[in-house]
Specification:
The chain contains five helices and six strands, in the order αββββαβααβα. It is an alpha/beta fold. Strands 1, 2, 3, 4, 5 and 6 form a six-stranded mixed β-sheet that branches. The protein starts with a helix and ends with a helix.
Length: about 140
């Protein structure tokens, strides 16, 4: 049997090896033209003119693109990191998606992640979101 300190150290080591994938989306004005960014393995993936919608639509589209990128990298152990409390809590099942558009985004996210089981999604401050920083610098 593994002792508690060893188990805690093992969990911390495993978590530190997870691929961190940052996501962020925005639109100008709100609602307006959507742009998204994802950062994985130090590479920024920026897409402009992704469509028209609200800032929540933009964040959801960024999260969905982050999952697609994670799957394309073939790394099953990843954590998705964004700064939108609304999207992080909705994707984690803690808050309801009230509009049909947001429900459609949630459905698309769940369809992509169905085979992965529980996907970890964390919220960070805007200043810590590498995708948001990349998106801001790309202007």
């Amino acid at each position: 049997m593994i002792g508690l300190p060893q188990a805690t150290a093992d969990i911390a080591r495993i978590r530190s090896h997870r691929l961190k994938i940052y996501f962020d989306g925005g639109c100008r004005p709100n609602p307006g033209a959507i742009e998204i960014a994802v950062v994985a393995r130090g590479q920024a993936y920026i897409s402009r003119d992704v469509g028209y919608g609200t800032s929540n639509d933009a964040e959801w589209l960024a999260l969905i693109e982050a999952v697609r990128i994670a799957l394309s990298l073939g790394k099953p152990d990843f954590v998705l990191i964004g700064d939108s409390a609304t999207v992080v809590n909705q994707a984690n099942g803690l808050w309801k998606c009230r509009s049909a558009d947001l429900q459609n985004h949630l459905r698309a996210f769940r369809d992509l992640t169905l085979s992965l089981g529980k996907v970890q999604i964390r919220q960070v401050k805007r200043s810590q979101n590498l995708a948001g920083i990349a998106l801001a610098r790309s202007h």
